[in-house]
Design goal:
The protein is mainly α. It is built from 15 helices and two strands. Helix 1 packs antiparallel against helix 2 and helix 2 packs across helix 10. The radius of gyration is 19 Å and the shape is globular.
Length: 307
């Protein structure tokens, strides 16, 4: 399968269209009725919708729900997260799918490891912040802020260097974000800062539950990608990306076919990924809420990590 999974002549994947309509429709309703819901009720409903939209964008960049990338992009064009341009997400995520470079902080855009050279230059407070971010509680509390800061710093450097693709991605992002901001602020009367605090930030925290243990630094690339079984509500929120080793092997497989593929080849997947498996996200919370699962510094020293 190709990384995009797109091929001309393929039919529309209606389950993905359905959840996309459900996501956008639910978001419109929740934002509109935010005052009636109260701040807690609003956050309880809006944050999962923002996280769900991120999962649907992930489907789109892999070639779903149609065979036409531009149409897929248009279907997820309004960014409920407001932070990450779709085309930048697509570019970095496809780069991440080079399994040979997984977890390498010098080559994997989604790595949470720190290169030894960079760690040596860090101040003591910054090291402490990164250590806290390395347990699950820290990833939920400060992780979104750290991830956003790192991402935006890199984007500023790209734009300052004149990178045309990055500039175009941000211009398109601003066009897509404009109606979202208008609906939040003008049509619904919700303060944009509160939307960021109650919907965007906790939405990013929900996604961090998935990404926390998604990859680990191992010599064999196939041992680097996790399988998280069970947790049906979170699996739906993540569109079965919890079965992450399946997604990395078959990146073009639509979300609703991933569980069947896993059941059909479960023994093979677990043998191939070195039995890197959790029975559910509850196990992660139990074992790593206040304890680091991995070291901050990438264990392979060459060029920031093992290539």
């Amino acid at each position: 399968m190709t990384s995009s999974g797109a091929r001309l002549g393929r039919g529309i994947e209606w389950p993905t269209v359905f959840i996309l309509v459900l996501c956008y429709g639910g978001w419109l309703a929740v934002v509109h009725f935010h005052a009636s819901l109260g701040w807690f009720g609003f956050a309880l409903l809006a944050a999962p919708l923002v996280a769900w939209h991120s999962s649907i964008q992930h489907e789109a960049l892999h070639g779903h729900p149609t065979a036409y990338p531009l149409l897929n992009e248009l279907m997820v064009f309004a960014p409920l997260n407001l932070l990450i341009p779709y085309r930048r997400y697509r570019a970095t995520h496809i780069e991440h799918h080079n399994d040979r470079n997984l977890t390498d902080p010098a080559a994997d855009p989604e790595s949470f490891y720190v290169a030894p050279q960079r760690w040596a230059r860090m101040s003591a407070p910054l090291r402490a912040l990164n250590r806290f971010n390395n347990c699950l509680a820290g990833r939920l509390i400060v992780g979104p802020w750290i991830a956003a800061a790192r991402f935006l710093a890199g984007e500023v450097r790209l734009i300052a260097s004149g990178d045309r693709l990055a500039i175009r991605a941000w211009l398109l992002h601003l066009i897509g974000a404009a109606p979202v901001v208008w609906y939040v602020v003008v049509a619904s009367g919700l303060d944009l800062g509160l939307y960021a605090l109650l919907a965007i930030y906790p939405g990013m925290s929900l996604i961090a539950i998935r990404t926390y243990a998604e990859h680990q630094a191992e010599d064999l690339p196939e041992h680097r990608t996790v399988i998280v079984e069970g947790s049906p509500l979170l699996a739906l929120l993540f569109l079965n990306n919890s079965l992450h080793a399946v997604h990395h092997r078959y990146p073009g497989l639509p979300w609703y076919r991933i569980p069947a593929a896993y059941r059909a080849e479960r023994k093979t997947f677990l043998a191939d990924n070195g039995n890197y498996v959790f029975r559910g996200y509850g196990a992660l919370f139990r074992d790593y809420l206040f304890r680091a699962k991995e070291p901050n510094v990438h264990p392979f020293p060459a060029a920031g990590g093992k290539r």
